[in-house]
Amino acid sequence: MYDVSQLRIFTEPQQGATYNDLLAVAGVAERLGFGAFFRSDHYLAMGSALDEGGLPGPTDAWITLAGLARDTERIRLGTLVTSATFRRPGPLAVAVAQVDHMSNGRVELGLGAGWYEEEHAAYGIPFPDVGERFDRLEEQLAIITGLWTTAEGELFSFDGQHHSVTDSPALPKPVQHPLPVIIGGGGPKRTPALAARFATEFNTPFLPIDAFCTQRDRVIAACEAASRDPSTITFSAAAVVCAGSDRAEFARRAAAIGREPDEIRENGVAGTVEEAHATMQRWHEAGAERLYLQVLDLGDLDHLETIASITTS
Predict the structure, then answer these.
(1) pLDDT tens for residues 244-284?
(2) Contacts of 124 by beta carbon, 8 Å cutoff, 6+ apart
């Protein structure tokens, strides 16, 4: 079963949160011993939050993490995930390395191809077709990891179809060697292949346990095909969390995030503390070495106390 340090609090601030809201959650998560505080990287609210106006509006993921790097002390920080369409690889490598220095080596980069077309339109970001987005992601990963691993005093160059780098001094370097890179998703071919080449960790977002197992097997096979030891990748999963000390508290928290109790039990880590514990145990037995628990009501800080208690129930 998981220790609390193997659980990571995952937030969706585009749904309505200020920096101070996120700092409050990160501070409580740090005090309770959670392993990390992660946030999504989105510029537009989704679903009912968008229908209600999307206030107070988005916060930038890496500006947020830079602030948290200085406002926290121990908890790890990262994105699940930054979209490769949002930033060019060179400046993104600089920003992430700088935040790693600001946090004394506590940062992790989740990077994906991007999927939410409406937010690209809303903020003037080009949104190519899915094949090109994956091509760009592959080049981004090659450039970012190449910049970070180039020896000091040497230059880095990369000639790609979408991104090219010429004689870069490849600075700054992160504190961590290597800085963890997270790749995830449910794609059957390109995603596992990219994970085998570049990932420190592979994550399945909001998929059932059997789909996690299928993806894990695909990544292991891709590692073996690339002559990489699969044990060098951490396997993780993300799921919405909603737990209560009893059924009434659970039902209240489910209603607060607009979910039906039976539905969220089926699709998340949810229910009473005992029920949520049993779900976590199934994930652990399936091979998920850590869990990202999506907390949707950022104002309910007592929920974090309940989540922390699941590991000891």
Answers:
(1) 999 999 999 999 999 999 999 999 999 999 999 999 999 99
(2) none
Measured CA to CA, the distance from residue 202 to residue 200 in angstroms comes to 7
Structure tokens at 35: 């392993």
Dump pLDDT digits (tens) for 97-151: 999 999 999 999 999 999 999 999 999 999 999 999 999 999 999 999 999 999 9
**Phi, psi torsion values for 126, nearest 5 degrees:** -60, 145
| Strand-strand pairing, 36-39 and 76-79 | parallel
Q: CA 205, CA 232: separation in Å to the nearest integer?
A: 20
Q: Which two tokens stand for residue 257?
A: 């995030």
What are the structure tokens assigned to 222, written together?
């891709």
The answer to whether the CB of 132 falls within 8 A of the CB of 162 is yes
Region for 230 from its dihedrals, namely left if φ exceeds 0, alpha if ψ lies in -120 to 50, beta otherwise: alpha
Threshold 0.85, pTM exceeds: yes
Give SS3 for 131.
helix
CB atoms closer than 10 angstroms to residue 48: 9
4-310: CATH topology is TIM Barrel (3.20.20)
Rounded Cα distance, 147 and 91, in Å: 11
Give domain limits for the chain: 4-310
Q: What are phi and psi of 224, to 5 degrees?
A: -65, -40
Q: Terminal CA-to-CA distance of the chain, rounded, Å?
A: 11
In this structure, are residues 41 and 33 in contact, taking their beta carbons and an 8 Å threshold?
no
- The full length of the chain comes to 313
Neighbours of 291 (CB within 10 A): 23
> What span, in angstroms and rounded, lies between the C-alpha atoms of 143 and 159?
10
